[in-house]
Amino acid sequence: MFIDPKLSKINTKIFTDNYDRIREDYIKFRDSDFFFDYSHEYDLPSIDGKSPVNFVLSNTPGFHWKVCPLILKRKPLSIIPKECQECFTTELLMKQLIKPILVTFSILEPGAELEPHSDTDENLDPKYYKSSVIKYHFSLDIPSDGESALVVNNECRILNNGDLNLFDEKLSLHYAYNRSANRRGVLIISYIRAEVLM
After folding, report:
1. pLDDT for the residue 35
2. All structural domains of the chain
3. pLDDT at 37
4. What sign does the CA torsion over 173, 179, 183, 187 have?
5. CA quadruple 7, 13, 18, 19: dihedral positive or negative?
6. Which of 36, 81, 89, 124 is least buried, going by the fewest C-beta atoms within 10 A?
7. Is the dihedral of CA 9, 136, 120, 123 positive or negative?
8. Using an 8 Å Cβ cutoff, are 34 and 89 in contact?
9. Which of 100, 174, 134 is nearest to 8 (CA)?
10. What are the residue ranges of helices labelled H in the chain?
């Protein structure tokens, strides 16, 4: 089920008040082709943030999900372009008292439908491997020509620009779809549940 943003220790206004600046980063990186094709087969906890990652090359047939990672294990990724490491979005999130364990811009291509899944982002911080992660999905570039949605435990939310949706990814199977003819872009931020829920 979705979680009321008012229950978060994170001041969610850091997202909503900065929608335009965060969206500018997303568009810049999208247009610069800083996104990689992604699937759940990658073992994110094993990435050290310094070594090259063998992401599938962009525009691979059959891939409909692309990511531009910014932060991993509470630090800006050093393997991404400098523009991403020093962008407004990365700096904004790294200035906060509670640091996210994973931050990525995410694109779903037109017609993409992800399978229901539960991630293992809590493994990114060994101290909290028994905890779970609260995912913050911030809608940045939602097409108007067809339905784009986030589904958590069979509760479907049709997305609109500026939406902020929270859920516990360990307790909730979730998936997303983009039933439009255009790309759908969001910012996904993962926080340790024990650190952000009151």
Report:
1. 81
2. 2-196 (2.60.120.330)
3. 73
4. negative
5. positive
6. 81
7. negative
8. no
9. 134
10. 13-16, 19-31, 82-85, 88-94, 193-196
Tokens 């700096």 locate to 91
Question: Could you tell me what percentage of the chain is helix, strand and coil, using 3-state DSSP and rounding each to the nearest 5?
Answer: 25, 35, 45
Residues whose CB falls within 8 Å of the CB of residue 67, separated by 6 or more in sequence, listed in order: 35, 36, 38, 104, 105, 106, 107
Q: What is the mean pLDDT of each run of 10 residues along the chain (198 residues)?
A: 93 96 96 74 51 45 78 88 93 97 94 85 81 94 96 95 93 90 96 91
CA distance 19 to 94: 17
Look up the pTM and report it.
0.89
Q: Give the pLDDT of residue 123.
A: 79
φ, ψ for residue 19, nearest 5 deg: -50, -50
pLDDT at 9: 95
